[in-house]
């Protein structure tokens, strides 16, 4: 099969297309033919080994795993003998530790893998996972959200759009911050109020919130603390990476 591989850290030009051995599923695994994947900021960080400390987990001098890619959507090509939840031909989507930048990948049945909704394309399904899972992990640190106010900064990105919808689902009053071109998009996701950061600085408008979630890592607790209510919580995605 073909895969995008890298044997050293660096800029995007360290990546190359190569023929590699097709994986064979173990008893508790499914083999997935990948129809769509993504290049996330996590992939970029692993490729470049920045920050340097990541090398202690990914390989000090060169990457231990040659194939990047975490998000995927595709079709089950084969199943292991012990697999009961998936069958050949099922359309699935999910998150793997690495290896999605290839034609095929193996995943355990118990991994973050689910049947793809019929009304969702492979492209759409592949793009859902990373942002939604990271947003959920961050919001859980602020439980409970019901009846509380939350501001989501960077509300139009992968993490931010998921955070707006999840916060509303958990019963929060949501204020979303984005740029002008994405105001209507963010409103359509259910935000109770939308602030256009090109027109207004939320840290200077006098309003306060129970939770401020920086979904893009562009702010800091120091800059936002006056916008927090007493006992309020500041959460940022970088602390969850």
Q: What shape does the CA trace take?
A: globular
CA-CA gap between termini: 31 Å
Q: What proportion of the residues form beta strands (DSSP E)?
A: 25-35%
Please give the number of β-strands.
12
Helical region count?
A: 6
Going by helix content, strand content and strand pairing, the class is alpha/beta
Strand order of the largest sheet: 6-3-4-5-7
- Low-confidence stretches are none
Radius of gyration: 20 Å
Characterization of the model:
With 241 residues, the protein is α/β, with parallel strands linked by helices. It has helices spanning 41-48, 55-58, 122-140, 158-169, 183-188, 221-224, and strands spanning 2-5, 16-19, 29-37, 71-79, 91-95, 104-108, 113-115, 149-153, 173-178, 193-196, 209-214, 228-236. It has a five-stranded antiparallel sheet with strand order 6-3-4-5-7. A five-stranded parallel sheet has the order 10-9-8-11-12. A two-stranded antiparallel ribbon has the order 1-2. Helix 4 links the parallel strand 8 and strand 9 (173-178). Helix 3 (122-140) crosses helix 4. The protein is globular. The two termini are 31 Å apart.
